[in-house]
Amino acid sequence: MERQCKIDGLIAAAYLFCPEIIEIEGHIFIKEFCNFKEGEEIEFLNDLKRYYNNKKDIEMSVNSWSIGEFF
Q: Going by C-beta distance under 8 Å and a sequence separation of 6 or more, which residues neighbour residue 58?
C-alpha cells in the first residue's frame, strides 16, 4: 500500500508546528490568536497588562490553545 501526502496536509502540519509569530515589546505571540488591527499592537498589549501581572501570564493568555480548537 502506497501512501502519499497531499500538499494541503503538508501545509496544515507546517502551520501547526511552525506558526507565524509576532513580537510586541519583548512579548512573543502566535499571530493567529492576536485580535488587533494594524497599528493597535501597543494598545492590545497594554490591555493585557491590566489583567495579568507578568510576561509569562500575558503570553500564555494569548498563546494557549488546544489541538481541537486549532482545527
A: 27, 45, 48, 49, 52
Q: Where in the sequence is the domain holding 51, given as residue range(s)?
A: 20-64
CA atoms within 13 A on the CB side of 2: 2
On whether residue 42 sits in a domain, the answer given is: yes
Residue matched to cell numbers 488591527: 37
pTM (2 d.p.) = 0.72
Q: What's the domain count of the chain?
A: 1
How high is the pLDDT of residue 12?
Answer: 76
Grid cell digits, residue 49: 497588562
Residue 71 lies in a domain: no
Q: Is residue 46 part of a domain?
A: yes
> Is the confidence at residue 59, as pLDDT, over 80?
yes
pLDDT score at 69 = 62
